[in-house]
């Protein structure tokens, strides 16, 4: 599968070692559904076997992105084909993710093995997109433990990562023995107090998803707050800079991957708002504008050598990693956004 970020707009190979490895199979499922073609089936089957092997042998799974990995592979396959084997794989992955849940703090540790002192007790906003694996497992097994872990994590995200001004921290630390909240900081944003664009986009989408599974209306309120701040910082072409501290004239890179995530999140959020509400119309309009501008200005159409879809993505600006490149998750969410905009879609999330 393609690696997380391109180099000169060409993806190197990833042999299912990255947290991003599932975004390619996610694209394949979308292509299969959109086209109705069986030409993707053999490749999907090969990929699914690799994800089963990764889980069976516990390969590079010391992180919370088990959710990303198995929502877009096992859960997607179950939802598209009804495969009982994929349902079992998804439940097994959910059990692996549950090992990262810390009862004292009520959070899922993001990175590192559980004895890693540097990463101990760290949650990150991205995990809002991983916990739907637990909600799914609860729904198909009837076991409440998955739901409770996901719900508690989402509430802690709401309480500590979402700031009073509707911006978000990228990460937040807790004492995993006492459960005490310690501090928020960034890993990929401009500063601890700035607002990393991709994190804000995860917040829009992730809070909306937790509302879908729980019915807790406070998640809609949080999603709207995060969305309103994100929208208020958009430049004229609706494609955000890599951190929302930057605006027009800053000469900073955009992040098309964050824009694509936000478009999906806004369309998800709009589904739960009153039919005639101004907010619903606004969110749908902004999402369509994002998609249109990505499609007309930020694709690889002018770069025939590229094997990606969107240019001008950013992986981690502070590390000078994947700046002004294709991001495999950006490509996936761009295709998901196009799918959502054109039809009623049975979400993999």
TrEMBL record:
The keyword Hydrolase applies. It holds the Pfam family Glyco_hydro_88. Keywords: Hydrolase. InterPro entries: 6-hairpin_glycosidase_sf, 6hp_glycosidase-like_sf, Glyco_hydro_88, UG_Glycosaminoglycan_Hydrolase. Transmembrane segments: none annotated. Substrate binds at residues 65, 126, 184, 186, 198, 202, 316. One of its GO terms (biological process) is polysaccharide catabolic process. The active site is at 65 (nucleophile), 126 (proton donor). GO terms for molecular function: chondroitin hydrolase activity. The keyword Hydrolase applies. Belongs to the glycosyl hydrolase 88 family. This is Glucuronyl hydrolase. It comes from Vagococcus bubulae.
């Amino acid at each position: 599968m393609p690696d997380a970020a391109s180099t000169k707009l060409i993806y190197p190979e990833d042999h299912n070692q990255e947290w991003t490895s599932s975004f390619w199979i996610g694209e394949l499922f979308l292509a299969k559904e959109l086209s109705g073609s069986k030409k993707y089936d053999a490749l999907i089957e090969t990929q699914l076997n690799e994800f089963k092997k990764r889980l069976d042998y516990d390969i590079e799974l010391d992180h919370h992105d088990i959710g990303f990995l198995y929502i877009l592979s096992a859960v997607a396959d179950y939802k598209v084909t009804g495969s009982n084997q994929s349902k079992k794989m998804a439940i097994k992955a959910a059990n692996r993710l549950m090992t990262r849940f810390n009862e004292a703090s009520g959070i899922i540790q993001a990175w590192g093995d559980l004895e890693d002192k540097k990463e101990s007790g760290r949650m990150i906003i991205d995990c809002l997109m991983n916990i739907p694996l637990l909600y799914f497992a609860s729904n198909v097994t009837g076991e409440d433990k998955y739901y409770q872990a996901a719900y508690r994590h989402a509430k802690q995200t709401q309480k500590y990562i979402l700031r009073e001004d509707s911006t978000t921290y990228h990460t937040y630390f807790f004492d995993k023995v006492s459960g005490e909240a310690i501090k928020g900081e960034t890993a990929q944003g401009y500063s601890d107090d700035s607002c990393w664009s991709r994190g804000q986009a995860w917040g829009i989408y992730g809070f909306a998803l937790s509302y879908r599974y729980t019915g807790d209306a406070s998640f809609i309120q949080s999603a709207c707050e995060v969305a309103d701040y994100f929208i208020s910082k958009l430049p004229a072409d609706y494609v955000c800079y890599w951190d929302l501290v930057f605006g027009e004239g800053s000469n900073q890179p955009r992040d098309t991957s964050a824009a694509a995530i936000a478009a999906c999140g806004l369309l998800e959020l709009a589904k739960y708002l009153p039919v005639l509400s101004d907010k619903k119309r606004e969110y749908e309009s902004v999402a369509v504008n994002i998609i249109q501008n990505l499609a007309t200005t930020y694709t690889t159409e002018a770069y025939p050598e590229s094997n990606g879809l969107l240019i001008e993505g950013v992986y981690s600006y502070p590390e000078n990693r994947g700046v002004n490149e294709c991001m495999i998750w950006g490509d996936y969410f761009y295709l998901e956004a196009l799918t959502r905009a054109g039809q009623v879609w049975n979400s993999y999330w």
